[in-house]
């Protein structure tokens, strides 16, 4: 994501830099300086500072980010000025959010030994991104011992004096803007700081264990000087929102009413055997089978775990359409494949309501929502929402499958696009692919192995589940 760039603030920060740059250059050097920074040529006459200010005032807003980039790359700046420019630029560009809690948990698990094997490179990274030195002009600190001195003493010379969490705290990493922390992670994974591929990959593996539940990942996107190069990216589309009510395993259209429209509190006015409503918070792990089981045992007052598992499975299976063996095979195969580790895999919710409208499509007309109910939903780490659909002929034909219906197909695709824009990942299977259980088994094993490949602890052998 990226916020709207604060152009006015960026202009003021560049002006502040120019107020110090003019002392380094003579009048004759100003045209070359402006050209190098991407500023319009300075007018003749007046003072050097006034000429530079006039050049900046004549610079269009859309060229300011390029000017700021050139200033950061080519001019020596104080730490405070450099960091202020970086923050405005980076916040206005695409970046990945890493919550403070994720940062802290990563720091607690982060052993600095590999990085301290290259202390000069490590300190150079910290110096590029954090405020390490006393800067009397900025009023940042007043003590005689700079943060750089303290890190050299308590981290580099005497490892163990400071934990990694203390180091991150002193740097301000837990509260730093998201882009700065992202650049920091990329730096820690880079060969410029850690010229040892195995050490790079150890750090990336550790970092991703914490980043993935937050919807981020350090992903390799190429090489630099023979070493892997990693960038912080969003892990799947994900969504910043977490579900409040999951209405699933329904045996018909639910009767829903608001109990408090102001608070968006809903009530499903149905008997428990008709509709299931999961209303517990969904955490950063997503919704796992064990979470669903705990809710089921609590709401049904079942103390025996095996009995609860059988009854929950049977209740969800009962909601599947009797004339859709493909859906039944997918549901059976998923639980059979993961039967030995079911507690640790995402729950597969059948017959899930994603939208709800009290009126029928015919009553609502052109404004009707499409795809009100989906076949299956999984809530994965990182707020990823994965929808699985098994498409029978009714999705693209009319008159009991006798004639193709492009209107139905178009409506289905329009609904998929709307879901994807809202952060859902939609995967569709043809019913004929799953109709036969033996034929469906290897296909679904491959699919779930690939889907879970990026999730720690959920890598499933493709030959499993036989």
Provide the low-confidence segments as ranges. 136-142, 459-466
> How do the strands line up in the largest sheet?
7-8-9-12
Helix percentage:
40-55%
> What is the number of beta strands?
12
Counting structural domains, the number is 3
Mean pLDDT across the residues is: 83
Query: How far from one another are the termini?
Result: 42 Å
Protein structure class: alpha+beta
Q: Tell me the Rg in angstroms.
A: 29 Å
What's the overall geometry?
A: elongated
Please describe the biggest sheet, giving its number of strands, its sense, and whether it closes into a barrel: 4 strands, mixed
Number of helices: 19
Proportion of residues in extended strands: 5-15%
Pfam family, one: AbiJ_NTD3
Protein name: AbiJ-NTD3 domain-containing protein
Organism: Streptomyces globosus
Domain AbiJ-NTD3: 98-263
């Amino acid at each position: 994501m990226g916020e709207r760039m604060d152009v006015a603030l960026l202009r003021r920060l560049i002006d502040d830099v120019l107020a110090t740059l003019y002392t380094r250059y003579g009048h004759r050097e100003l045209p070359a300086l402006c050209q190098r920074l991407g500023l319009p040529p300075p007018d003749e006459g007046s003072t050097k500072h006034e000429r530079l200010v006039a050049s900046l005032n004549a610079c269009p807003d859309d060229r300011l980010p390029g000017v700021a980039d050139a200033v950061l790359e080519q001019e020596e700046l104080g730490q405070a000025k450099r960091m202020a420019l970086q923050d405005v630029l980076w916040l206005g560009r695409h970046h990945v959010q890493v919550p403070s809690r994720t940062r802290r948990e990563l720091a607690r698990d982060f052993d600095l030994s590999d990085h301290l094997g290259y202390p000069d490179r490590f300190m150079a990274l910290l110096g590029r991104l954090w405020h390490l030195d006393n800067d009397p002009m900025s009023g940042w600190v007043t003590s005689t011992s700079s943060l750089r001195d303290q890190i050299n003493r308590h981290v580099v010379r005497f490892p163990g004096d400071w934990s990694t969490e203390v180091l991150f705290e002193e740097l301000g990493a837990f509260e730093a803007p998201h882009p700065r922390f992202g650049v920091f992670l990329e730096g820690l994974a880079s060969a410029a700081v850690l010229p040892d591929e195995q050490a790079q990959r150890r750090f990336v593996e550790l970092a991703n264990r914490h980043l993935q539940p937050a919807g981020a990942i350090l992903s390799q996107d190429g090489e630099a000087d023979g070493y892997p190069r990693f960038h912080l990216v969003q892990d799947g589309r994900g969504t910043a929102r977490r579900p409040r009510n999951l209405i699933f395993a329904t045996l018909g259209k639910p009767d829903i009413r608001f109990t408090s429209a102001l608070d968006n509190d809903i009530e499903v006015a149905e008997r428990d055997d008709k509709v299931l409503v999961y209303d517990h918070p969904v955490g950063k792990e997503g919704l796992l089978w064990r979470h669903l089981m705990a809710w089921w045992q609590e709401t049904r007052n079942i103390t025996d775990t095996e009995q609860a598992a059988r009854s929950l499975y049977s209740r969800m299976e009962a909601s599947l359409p009797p004339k859709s063996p493909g859906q039944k095979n997918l549901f059976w195969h998923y639980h059979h494949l993961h039967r030995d580790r079911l507690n640790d895999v995402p729950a597969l919710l059948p017959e899930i309501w994603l939208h709800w409208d009290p009126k029928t499509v015919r009553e609502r007309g052109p404004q009707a929502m499409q795809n009100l109910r989906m076949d299956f939903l999984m809530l994965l780490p990182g707020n990823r929402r994965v929808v699985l659909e098994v498409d029978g002929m009714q999705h693209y034909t009319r008159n009991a499958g006798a004639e193709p219906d492009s209107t139905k197909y178009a409506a289905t695709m329009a609904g998929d696009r709307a879901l994807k824009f809202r952060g859902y990942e939609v995967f569709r299977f043809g019913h004929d692919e799953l109709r036969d259980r033996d034929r469906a088994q290897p296909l679904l094993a491959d699919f779930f192995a690939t889907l879970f490949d990026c999730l720690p602890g959920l890598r499933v052998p493709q030959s499993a589940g036989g």
